[in-house]
Amino acid sequence: MTEAPKKKGRLFYKFLFIFLIVSLVPLGIVGYYLVNLSQITLNKAISRDQEALAVGFADTVSSYIINFRNVLFDAAHMEDFSSMNVARQQALVNHIMQLHAAFLEISVIDASGMETVRIGRFVHDNKLRDFSNDALFAKVMKIGEFVGGLEKYMGSYPAITMGVQIANAASNQGVGVLVAKMSLTGLSGILKTGFPETTHTQAAVIDSAGFLIAHSDAKEIYKPDAKLPDDILNILLRNDAKTGGGEIILDSTGERVLGAFAEVTDLGWVVYIQRSISIAYQASNDMLKRTWRMMLVVTIFVLFLGYAVSLVITQPIQALRAAAIKLGEGDFDYLPDLSMPNDEIGELAHTFMQMSESLKVKTAEIMSAQDELQRLNRSLENRVEARTRELKSAQDELIKKERLAAIGQMASVVGHEIRNPLAVINNSTYFIKTKIGTISNLEPKVLKHLSIIESEIRQANGIIDEILGFARTKELNAKPTCLNSYIDDLLMSFPVPAHIQLEKTLAPGNLYVNIDTDEMTQALRNLIKNGIEVMPEQGKIFIRTVVSAPDTVRIDIEDTGPGIPKETLEKIFAPFFTTKARGTGLGLAVVKKIADRHKGRVEVSSVVGKGTCFKIFLPIAISPVNK
User: Fold this and answer.
1) Per residue in 130-144, pLDDT tens?
2) Which tens digits make up the pLDDT trace of 441-489?
3) Which among 261, 283, 543, 619 is most buried, taking Cβ atoms within 10 Å?
4) Which helix (DSSP H) or strand (DSSP E) does residue 355 occupy?
5) Inter-axis angle of helices 587-597 and 517-533, to 10 degrees?
6) Residue 531 has what DSSP assignment?
7) 77-183: what CATH class?
8) Does residue 346 have a pLDDT over 70?
9) What b/e readout covers 516-541, taking b as 16+ CB neighbours within 10 angstroms?
10) What is the C-alpha separation between 561 and 559, in angstroms, rounded?
11) Cβ atoms 418, 465 nearer than 8 A
């Protein structure tokens, strides 16, 4: 009797296992991804809602201050105030104090700076004060209104000072100032109403120095040094954004909180809202739990479905297997009856042998097609990368041109609008000097200050010239120029201070370059001037021309100054970057731009403590004589 073949595994369990892998693994991955995505999305939505809440309260704070400023503004434009009748003003101030409890103190100051009315809730000394030299009074008389920073009224109440100009209704001229100290404790009441303790949310308003202006827990603002924790202040005060938010780990307790902030318009204050992560994300966590419970139910359903599908598929295959065993034993005459379904499994029994032969041919074809496909893919990737680089380069160039165009428009407007008043100031200075020239025993300080004004006018004109020179792009007027003669002419017209020693070394022969002499003069003057400025006591400037390649000449401008640190050296050609106390940061950017326009380049080498050398490389041109 032939021994039955040893079973190597049941197809039913294999199908069941594969079905579960195919169904549950993608389901688990997709489910896990969707659950986490939903949680992240919901958490982001919660964070955005908190940011929106901070923005809303920032608007509320701004409106709160503006409303009280408008009260003063409306009062200051009433006829009773503009008449400067003390009795009527005092009655109106009393009325305002009764209507608005937030005002702690209100004063009326006439145009000469003398206080005419002073009424306060805690003022016991009604002595009138002189504000003629007060900066606040002068500012309000000049610009019409002012809102000051945070202060502690009587060392306890957070308050601000605001002032508006009292205007004559007929002439619209300022006849005085209405100044008020306003308590900010009402803001804490607004925050407490919006964020009661039951919400487990804290809200605060801080000024630009980090001190508390208002807090949902009013007790916080009465502390001597009322501030938020340092780790939160570091985030809020160092952030340049108007609004923002996110998770924060508190250094003091290690607690994770969800914070959001928004800047109060025109005041420089910041509204900060903080909630515990466990409270803020409670809805998200509840959704996560419900989703995982649903995933568990789906998994159980898939298990039963996989069992049923595996059973349906394996039953006809088991019958085919039994027939294959008989054929393997050589029993060709007696085969079990096969009730195969009219589907792919039934066709399998009739086409298995033909398939094995054709499979070899198809496999070879597939391998060849795969190699060809990989080759085409590599070719396509190379072409895509090349096109991408071209598009990025074109996009960068377009962005650069758009920025330069915008800067050019701005520079034209700024140059026109600033140069006109500078010209007026300069003419006025000249007129004053001609008038005081005949005055004997004139105080030296007058002449000194006139010289300062003239110097500042020249400085301002120089800054405008730098901005216009960088932003304005004109057509390059390049002509063949003898380089050595050009350098000699340039140095003869450049004023070198007595403490600077100038050394010139020019390459032999008559080298010609195609340059726009006006632009190149501007570039070389900028470099020489920079070298002189870094050597205020004494030093040397070296001017050299060197043939660095058969078709290239190099102009060196070298100084013996303090040199440039390595970390600064990489940024010096960037527009508006400067290490000077005064300057636009456009001098070296203009140099680079001019070198680029001449199809050349500029390089720099520097050793700290020894000096700096700027090198301008230019293509050598054909001499006009040799044409």
Assistant:
1) 888 888 888 888 888
2) 667 777 777 777 877 777 676 666 666 665 556 677 888 999 889 999 8
3) 261
4) helix 344-436
5) 150
6) H
7) alpha beta
8) no
9) beebbbbbbebbbebbbebbeeebeb
10) 6
11) no
Cα–Cα dist 100/104, whole Å? 9
- Residue 24 φ then ψ, to 5°: -80, -40
Render pLDDT for 161-191 as a digit per residue (tens, 0 to 9): 888 988 877 777 888 898 998 888 888 888 8
Strands (E), 457-608: 479-482, 500-505, 512-515, 539-549, 552-559, 601-607
Residues 314/12, Cβ–Cβ less than 8 Å: yes
With cut-offs at 50, 70 and 90, classify the pLDDT of residue 306.
confident
What does the pLDDT read at residue 348? 61
User: What pLDDT does 559 receive?
Assistant: 92
Q: Check if the beta carbon of residue 204 is closer than 8 Å to that of residue 210.
A: no
Q: Which two tokens stand for residue 530?
A: 């920079």
Is residue 376's pLDDT more than 90?
no
DSSP labels, 152-220: EETTTEEEEEEEEEEE-TTT--EEEEEEEEEE-HHHHHHHHHHS-GGGTEEEEEE-TTSBEEEESSGGG
Rounded to the nearest angstrom, the gap between the alpha carbon of residue 377 and the centroid of all alpha carbons in its chain is: 40
Among candidates 186, 211, 193, 216, which has minimal Cα distance to 63?
186
Superfamily of domain 477-626: Histidine kinase-like ATPase, C-terminal domain (3.30.565.10)
613 pLDDT band, cuts 50/70/90, is very high
Q: What is the DSSP string of 209-271?
A: TSBEEEESSGGGGGSTT-B--HHHHHHHHT---SEEEEEEE-TTT--EEEEEEEEPTTT--EE
- With bands split at pLDDT 50, 70 and 90, how would you rate the model's confidence at 222? confident
Measured CA distances, 24 to 123, 296, 302 (Å): 78, 11, 7
CA angle in degrees (0–180, nearest 5) for 11-13-16? 110
DSSP label at 576?
T
- Residue 185 makes CB contacts below 8 A (sequence gap 6+) with 102, 157, 158, 214, 218, 221
Angle in degrees, 0-180, between the axes of helices 344-436 and 444-471, rounded to the nearest 10: 150
Quote the tokens at residue 578: 């400067």
CB 617 within 8 A of CB 598: no
Paired tokens of 58: 């920032």
The residue-averaged pLDDT of 409-416 equals 63
Long-range contacts of 530-534 (CB under 8 A, 24+ apart): 530/559, 530/587, 530/588, 531/557, 531/558, 531/559, 531/561, 531/612, 532/496, 532/497, 532/500, 532/559, 533/580, 534/559, 534/561, 534/562, 534/612
The encoded tokens of residue 564 equal 């440039």
**Residues listed for the chain:** 627
